[in-house]
Design brief:
With 294 residues, this protein is of the alpha/beta class. It is 48% helix and 15% strand. The chain has 2 domains: 37 residues; 249 residues, Metal-dependent hydrolases (TIM Barrel), CATH 3.20.20.140. The strands form 2 sheets. The chain has an 8-stranded parallel beta sheet, with helices on both faces. A two-stranded antiparallel ribbon has the order 8-9. The chain is globular.
């Protein structure tokens, strides 16, 4: 059988084109995997309270966050000195928020404590914050005088409210201040259908996913949560919730786990949830104060 040179050349050319296509596809897939693995994170739920100070030093805490690929972290503490310690150590990383707790264990008492108001007012005079919270508030307690004063202070200073609340309390907060910006801690531990209903009702409501694992498993997003993320890609944020000192040792693991399930979403949605929504939240506050986050 005679093989013409032209036929051989065409065959080689086709093989090269196929090989190039395969290599290109592999390169694209590899780049996508690398991008997902290195996806920066805005952690919207970090605490550095007084019970953690002797376990994880400020320097160690910052090293943990940086090693986890956390570029910015919304931090509150009981008391606020913990937040200030981290902000002093890494002002480029820490986004301070102010919770109305003067010590560990006040989450259920602060709503009736006028001293919490005095404390928050004093701290607001001394430092800059982007939010009041994360605070625990449920149902009709939102209408008590102390929580009402917190809403007034947030309005006065142009701050977000970071509420660990049921849906009832969130609705009561919006009733007091319809234009409030509320970050719903843990998405209220509500089912995704309820979360979606709340997000539809309140355009200034966002939700962090701290301490939740029900939205993903095995690197895959649950169908009901996928619908929520795709409907509201600009309203969800990640969060670790270092509410006890030992939780500092899972920050890196949580970041890795989050990147795995984020890969199951469209890249632009994954980026929004991972860090862009947090950046928007901070910039909205900073713009009111004449500053801008990087």
């Amino acid at each position: 059988m005679r093989v013409h040179f032209a036929d051989t050349r065409n065959l080689v050319s086709r093989m090269l084109r196929i090989s190039l296509a395969v290599v290109t596809l592999a390169a694209v897939n590899f780049a996508a995997a690398v991008h997902a693995a290195e996806l920066p994170i805005f952690d919207a739920h970090i605490h550095y309270s007084e019970d953690a100070w002797g376990v994880v030093s400020p320097k160690e805490a910052i090293e943990i966050l940086r090693a986890s690929g956390v570029k910015r972290a919304l931090v509150s503490s009981s008391n606020d000195e913990g937040t200030q310690k981290l902000a002093t150590e890494a002002p480029d990383l820490i986004v301070p928020e102010l919770r109305p707790y003067r010590g560990v264990g006040e989450s259920s008492r602060w709503v009736g404590d006028e001293g919490a108001v005095t404390y928050v007012e004093e701290r607001l005079r001394r430092h800059r914050y982007v939010a009041i919270g994360e605070f625990h508030l449920h149902g009709a307690d939102a209408d008590l005088p102390v929580p009402r004063r917190m809403v007034q202070l947030a309005k006065q200073h142009g701050l977000t409210l970071h509420a660990h609340s049921d849906a009832d309390a969130v609705e009561r907060l919006f009733a007091q201040w319809p234009d409030a910006r509320i970050l719903w801690a843990h998405a209220g531990f509500e089912r995704p259908e309820r979360v979606r209903a709340m997000l539809r009702k309140y355009r200034n409501l966002s939700a962090d996913l701290a301490f939740r694992t029900d939205h993903a498993a095995g690197g895959k997003v649950k169908p009901e949560w996928r619908e929520a993320f795709l409907e509201f890609p600009d309203r969800f944020m990640l969060g670790t919730d270092t509410y006890v000192p030992d939780r500092w040792h899972v920050v890196q693991e949580h970041a890795q786990w989050s990147r795995q399930w984020l890969k199951d979403l469209p890249p632009e949605v994954a980026e929004r949830i991972a860090w862009k929504n947090g950046k928007v939240l901070v910039n909205e506050i900073m713009q009111r104060k004449g500053k801008r986050a990087d």
